[in-house]
Amino acid sequence: MKTHASFFVILSVLLLPASWVVGSGSYAPKPKPAAPQPVIAQAFVQEAKPVVIDTERYYLGQKLYTGKLRLSAKGVSEYRVKQQTKMLNQVKADLPEEIAKEFKVEKLAGKLNNKQFWSLRYYLHQRYVVPPRS
Q1: Residue 93's domain spans which residues?
Q2: Mean pLDDT to the nearest integer, 40-63
Q3: Reported confidence tier of residue 60, pLDDT bands at 50, 70, 90
Q4: Tens of pLDDT along 6-37?
Q5: CA atoms of 64 and 88, how far apart (whole Å)
Q6: In a domain, 111, yes or no
Q7: Residue 14: predicted pLDDT
Q8: 3 is a domain residue
Q9: Is residue 118 part of a domain?
């Protein structure tokens, strides 16, 4: 029995330093700080506004722009051609450069009625986000 008691004493003395290391629990490293977020000035943050699109005008203008709607050349007056050429050139000037190159004023001038002209203008302003003139 004496050997068993001395064995437990020797064993506890040898394992005592190991229990100090393990006894403190698991080690969790400190979390790394998060990457800094960019600061956005409040002047540049805009609230989202609902976009309302007049679908009838938009799709009529789209058909006119893409050439899917046939236009009649009957009853085209010289005055109407001049008037619409001037107005279509103003619309063309507002468009982005690469789109303005493709926009053929001569193909449409004089052939549009009022509803078609304003629908075409509406489509181009909605599609290519033309800033209002001041």
Answers
A1: 55-127
A2: 75
A3: very high
A4: 766 676 666 655 555 555 567 777 888 777 76
A5: 13
A6: yes
A7: 63
A8: no
A9: yes
